[in-house]
Design a protein that fits this description.
- By secondary structure, the chain is an alpha/beta fold.
- Helices cover 57% and strands 14% of the residues.
């Protein structure tokens, strides 16, 4: 799927942008801006990144409210796309998930993906709207199983994906058991010994209760009276558990409220951090300033999300406490009524006292017995899961060996690409391997390695990310586009960035794909006439402080 044209309309249905895209090669969103002098003066407000997100929505990205300012809601997108040789119209109103249409027919987001045979996870590996900290993950500092399986699928390393997913699922189960049980300091043999002794003690108390029941019958207490005593004992136990549950819920709500207060206090802005450095007479590079702003935004969003979730949890807990209070009130009445009936008979009092004492002791043993058997079951499951993980690792290693020819091809591609950009004095090594960590039970099963040797400057991590993006762009057969925001280029030397953009453009033409990127004026090497010519020829829109995407500040 490719995007041919995008029109943007304001809430009054007035067309404010009409953009045609190159269907083969690069389409450049050009930002006529200089390097920001201050952290508060960035080029983000002119609309480059926002336009890329609009394009992403058309190409399968799920719209999220935090993607843009609330003032953008109500604007609409109308696009022409190409899919399997046919053209289609796509329409959607921002902020209205039910407004999505294809050729005039309304569709849900899921149906939209199915209609164009897209998968959001795969597409995310070719859409980048901000800098990232890992070569294969656009969200997480450490990739998850979806990151790994999506990249493997795009690189046509298919047969090992099930092993990877199964290992990660089993690792999650092992972690859940560990978290639940906290620790397994006592081994299985000790738990089995404890289980046996508790079982014997349990049988003894059950025999005592049976003997007590016979003695109660010899006192000529009716069966109804015996049942009355048993019911009273059970109700008292139930009441005790309800009160404990209520107390636990109150403690949980109180802890969540404390967390909310702590999150509200944890709000050190990027400006405050910078002022601390300034007081210490330490200068901060522009890239670090922008990184601080992004970190602040990330944590602010994270804290806001957590506060929202915790408040929602507190509301649920308060409702549960209210329900428990009703149950407790009702149960106290029932228990008191039963106690009044039993108190009328002195024999009932004595029998009840003995019976309740033995029953309470048996319940304590049952509780401990259940905990021990649960621990035994968890240890057995944990051991079984770990054995299965290690078995899958053996199969994973065997099947990955079958892809060595393909991986070698990727390795040479990356090596030659680095030589084109940085010259023969630089080198690169790419590999996909099975983890050899001693903590295999917990570690990621597949490692994507990319090591570079040479003078790559402070933009090393950004260069690595672009190399992986280009590799996937060139070899995958599922996605016909690659999208890069200008933030992906920060820190890369202008000379090398110039080469990278021209190389991707050549690859895009060779394999008939779209490369859509935003770039700022300060990224461009003024002496590179071929890049300037490419920018002039392939710029689909030029944005600036005077000419913003939506014609106003947002």
């Amino acid at each position: 799927m490719k995007i041919n044209n995008l029109k943007i309309y304001d809430p009054n249905d007035k067309e404010i942008q009409n953009i045609d895209f190159e269907t083969s090669g690069c389409s450049i969103i050009y930002g006529k801006v200089e390097v920001p002098d201050e952290i508060t003066k960035t080029s983000n407000s002119i609309g480059k990144t926002l336009l890329l997100k609009f394009i992403g929505y058309i190409l399968g990205k799920q719209e999220k409210s935090k993607d843009y300012s609330p003032v953008v809601k109500g604007f609409s997108l109308r696009a022409e796309v190409s899919y399997k040789g046919e053209k289609h119209t796509v329409e959607r109103i921002l902020g209205d998930s039910k407004s999505l249409k294809v050729d005039g027919v309304k569709m849900s987001y899921k149906k939209y993906l199915d209609y164009f045979e897209m998968r959001a996870g795969l597409n995310s590996k070719q859409m980048f709207f901000k800098r990232r900290s890992h070569i294969i993950s656009d969200v997480n500092p450490n990739p998850d199983k979806n990151d790994i399986s999506n990249v493997l699928e795009l690189l046509n390393i298919i047969n090992i994906i099930d092993y990877v997913n199964n290992i990660r699922d089993l690792q999650s189960k092992v972690k859940a058991i560990k978290d639940f049980s906290k620790s397994f300091e006592t081994d299985l043999a000790e738990y089995k010994q404890k289980e046996f002794l508790l079982k014997q003690e349990r049988n003894k108390y059950q025999n005592d209760l049976t003997a007590l029941s016979i003695r109660m019958q010899s006192l000529e207490i009716s069966q109804d009276s015996v049942n009355l005593i048993e019911e009273h004992s059970n109700k008292k136990y139930e009441l005790k558990n309800l009160k404990m549950k209520e107390e636990n819920l109150k403690n949980k709500a109180e802890n969540l409220e404390k967390l909310i207060e702590e999150y509200k206090k944890a709000d050190l802005s990027s400006e405050e951090i910078l002022s601390i450095f300034q007081m210490s007479n330490i200068s901060i590079p522009e890239m670090v300033k922008r990184s601080l702003e992004e970190v602040q935004t990330f944590y602010k969003e994270m804290f806001t999300d957590k506060i929202y979730i915790y408040k929602k949890d507190i509301k649920i807990i308060r409702n549960m406490i209210q329900q428990l209070e009703i149950q407790i009130t009702d149960l106290i009445k029932v228990t008191n009524d039963l106690a009044s009936k039993i108190a009328d008979n002195q024999l009932f009092k004595e029998s009840m006292s003995i019976y309740e004492l033995r029953t309470e002791e048996l319940r304590k043993i049952d509780l401990e017995y259940g905990e021990v058997t649960g621990r035994i079951s968890n240890i057995s499951k944990k051991n079984d899961f770990e054995h299965e993980i290690l078995s899958d690792y053996l199969l994973l290693e065997k099947d990955l060996d079958d892809y060595e020819v393909i991986i070698e091809r990727y390795r040479e591609f990356i090596y030659n690409l680095v030589a084109k950009v940085y010259g023969n004095n630089s080198s690169a090594f790419f590999d996909i391997t099975v983890s050899t960590s001693k903590r295999r039970i917990e570690s990621l099963p597949i490692i994507f390695e990319l090591s570079l040797k040479g003078d790559f400057g402070e933009g090393l991590s950004a260069v690595k990310n672009l190399l992986i993006d280009i590799l996937i762009f060139y070899y995958n057969r599922q996605i016909e586009f690659l999208i890069h925001d200008s933030s992906c280029f920060e820190g890369i030397d202008k000379r090398q960035l110039s080469s990278i953009i021209k190389i991707i453009n050549d690859y895009a033409k060779e394999i008939d794909k779209q490369y859509i990127l935003s770039i700022n004026e300060y990224h461009i090497l003024s002496s590179d006439n071929s890049l300037i010519e490419l920018v002039n020829k392939n710029s689909v829109i030029e944005l600036s402080e005077e000419e913003k995407l939506l014609k106003f500040d947002f």
